[in-house]
Specification:
With 139 residues, the protein is α+β, with helices and mostly antiparallel strands. It has two domains: 67 residues, no CATH class; 50 residues, no CATH class. Helix content is 15%, strand content 28%. The chain has one helix and nine strands. Strands 1-2-3-4 form a four-stranded mixed β-sheet, with no helix packed on it. The two termini are 34 Å apart.
């Protein structure tokens, strides 16, 4: 929270070494709590990612519109190591309800996710249906 002391009570400690040790411990607690916290949830198109700063390293964001998780580096959002590969092609049975983050390969221009948690326009390839199955690409 803005204006909140990141080191509660440390200002009252007179010993410099103890004060430094307490700041170090508070930083480690903050890093661990960010790793185990539930990620923020929203969309990247429109952008609903929370505004973060350098002290928020490790915070996570789950993009519901692309079914992807991002991690804050301190400067920008990056794909989570467990994020699925973009541009995978899969054939689903004809006219399925496509999973979130997949689009039919029908030549449309759609926004796709990027590894930094933004979107870029992308032209999907045209792949004809095959034996009652339709090609989809992960965006």
């Amino acid at each position: 929270m803005a204006g909140q002391d990141p080191y509660p009570g440390v200002a009252q400690v007179q010993d410099t070494m103890t004060s430094q040790a307490l700041r170090f411990i508070w930083d480690r607690i903050a890093n661990i709590s960010r790793l185990v916290k539930t990620p923020a949830i929203g969309t990247i198109n429109p952008d609903q990612k929370p505004p973060l700063g350098p002290r928020d390293v490790g915070s996570r964001f789950f993009a519901t519109d692309y079914n992807r998780e991002y991690i804050w580096t301190g400067l920008r959002w990056d794909d989570s190591p467990s994020a699925p590969t973009r541009f995978q092609l899969v054939f689903f049975v004809s006219n399925p309800e496509p999973p979130i983050g997949w689009a039919p390969c029908d030549g449309r221009v759609l926004p796709r996710s990027t590894s930094q948690g933004t979107t870029l326009l992308f032209t999907l390839p045209v792949i004809p249906d095959y034996a009652g199955q339709k090609a989809y690409m992960r965006l």
